[in-house]
From TrEMBL:
This is Flagellar motor stator protein MotA. It comes from the Bacteria. It is a multi-pass membrane protein. PROSITE patterns: MOTA (PS01307). Signal peptide: none annotated. The keyword Transport applies. Residues 4-93 form the Motility protein A N-terminal domain. GO terms for biological process: bacterial-type flagellum-dependent swarming motility; chemotaxis; proton transmembrane transport.
Length: 285
């Protein structure tokens, strides 16, 4: 929703300012320039991107339009999930959660957090980490290093759509110049026409440059930055899980490990200590 509002503001500001100077909107309507610039931009993107990147970009843009972001409730859910898992391990032993990590979607604990279950990266992080702890004698510092590497790799993967759109954004002003040059070439073929015809033709050519620059700095660039924020937010969410798991494997009590995780939640969505404590008490009733 905010992305759409931003696009409306950009167009309103640019076109509104143009109209304030008594500009003619008909001059800006140049279908041929649109075909040249955006057709070349899309074609260049397809040449540079494997299918998985194209799908990732489409998925990322849809997520921008949906406006989905991790909320305080999402972080509360992950803290309560970790608390339930840690408490069960502390009471019944590590082996007691074997069935839960082998099949999280059939687990009584995981099924209490349906939204978390839809995040397959987060589910895999929890399940694979606990499975590693069960089947190996990995030290806490080695586990932390392992998880850091996994989160870095995941973050790099999430950054691919942002970098791809950034490349498209960088190409748009250049493609706008290409459209303008083609327009000038057409104008030169009309050199014997009256000044009114030449003026209209040159104006149409300059619209190509205008469109390329506007789409770069008004739309494609901001979309790339938004996808970067989404990737960083995902890393923050996964980091909360990592900190909780490492603290517990390092010997912290369940509630202390959960507190370690709570402390690294971004401030604008961080539940308070009292809120988490009361929620955990509610689980025990």
């Amino acid at each position: 929703m905010f992305a759409i509002i931003g696009a409306v503001v950009v167009l309103s500001a640019v076109i509104g300012g143009y109209l304030l100077e008594h500009g003619n909107l008909n001059v800006l309507f140049q279908p041929a320039e649109v075909v040249i610039i955006f057709g070349a931009a899309v074609g260049g993107f397809i040449i540079a991107s494997p299918m998985k990147v194209i799908k990732a970009v489409i998925s990322g843009v849809l997520r921008i339009l949906s406006g989905k972001a991790y909320s305080k409730a999402d972080y509360m859910d992950v803290l309560l999930l970790l608390s339930e898992i840690f408490s069960k391990i502390r009471k019944e032993g590590l082996v007691s959660i074997e069935a839960d990590v082998d099949n999280p979607h059939e687990s009584k604990i995981f099924s209490n957090y349906s939204k978390f279950l839809k995040n397959h990266h987060a589910v895999a992080l929890v399940a694979d980490t606990l499975r590693t702890v069960m089947t190996t004698s990995i030290a806490p510092h080695e586990l932390e290093s392992l998880l850091d590497n996994e989160l870095d790799a995941h973050h790099e993967e999430l950054m691919i759509p942002s970098k791809s759109i950034a490349n498209v954004a960088e190409s748009l002003p250049g493609l706008g110049i290409v459209a303008a040059v083609l327009g000038v070439v057409i104008t030169m073929g009309k050199i014997n026409e009256p000044p009114e015809v030449l003026g209209h033709s040159i104006g149409a050519a300059l619209v190509g440059t205008f469109m390329g620059v506007l789409m770069c700095y008004g739309f494609a660039g901001p979309v790339s930055k938004n996808l970067e924020y989404i990737a960083n937010e995902e890393k923050e969410y996964m980091n909360v899980i990592k900190v909780g798991l490492v603290a517990f494997v390092g010997g912290a009590a369940p509630q202390i490990a959960v507190e370690f995780a709570r402390r690294v939640i971004p401030g604008n969505v961080k539940p308070t200590f009292v809120e988490v404590e009361e929620a955990i008490r509610g689980l025990k009733k």
